[in-house]
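Student:
Attend to each token:
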Amino acid sequence: MTVTESAGLAQQPDTMLTAAIVALRAPLELRRVPRPVPGPEEVLVHIRAAGVCHTDLHLVDGVPDSPHFPLVPGHEIAGRIAAVGEDVSRRRVGESVSVYYYDGCGECGWCGEGLENLCRAAKSKWGFNVDGGFAEYVCVPARCALPIPEGLSFAEAAVLGCSGTTGVHVVEGIAGVRHGEAVVVIGAGGVGLAAVQVACAAGATVIAVDPDADSRAAAVGVGAKDALDPGRAPAAQQLRALMPEGCDVVVDTVGDDATPRQAIAMVRPRGRVVLVGYTERAASIDVADIVTREVRVYGSVGATLAEARRTFELAAHGLLRPVIADTYPLERVGEALARLRGGRVTGRLVLEP
């Protein structure tokens, strides 16, 4: 569908174009809706780029839960501040920003610890419980609009807002990767490529695992020492040939019915496995192997505001750069989602409203 007069989607004053989920497993629908107005302590962001994440496909499919309808997805958001609400300096108008997509309740213990990503009563989680970045504008709290370092494009900044921040949370916040450790990253997509770079920045030796040759090449290109093809032989078998005792940390960004078990088989006794990705398929794991080798298994979701700031600090120093596969106008969101679902993406796709 394209934006045309006949479709009733022509530009109108004080409106904006959006792409919304209107039913499970249905194509997103282009809609023209009123442009939001920033309230107190909020800014209006004119969106210039929105990353397309696998989580957006999960929302379309209702995995693990169905979102409310209609919902504008998109939680990787970057743009320029177009207006500000009360109690926000007008000097911020025109500032290039990336959006931290959690706004916790501010009252629970998790928020008190700075862990808004675990808040169960979040006021807003853009692209999940409120309309997100598959649109021309979005209002967010001023504190969630993080300045983009010089030299980063809007597309790069948008992708860093989730894949980059998730990589930092996984590697630094959850796994606590240290200099000299060996890290395996399963899946060299957006999050996987970010995790490779953050682990390399920590001084680790990193090996990636991905069935796609281009994705393996991308992982090596951003710092991985090697990239294993699980189609050639079981990844755990290949890894054990290189490291008989196993590695220190495995990050699983895939989370299908087989990769968690593979991750556990790769890690050394008392090593750490971090599960990031998930699908609708239940995974089978060897509990006895976890118990007898004292393997530590962690889950990881999103990132904190502090880790979002840390992400852009790494980017400013050239230690973290997202891989952009392609960009699409908002009107072609269906093509972008279909391409992602088909597994024909190295890095991240980005919409440019």
In short: Confidence is low (pLDDT under 50) at residues 1-7.
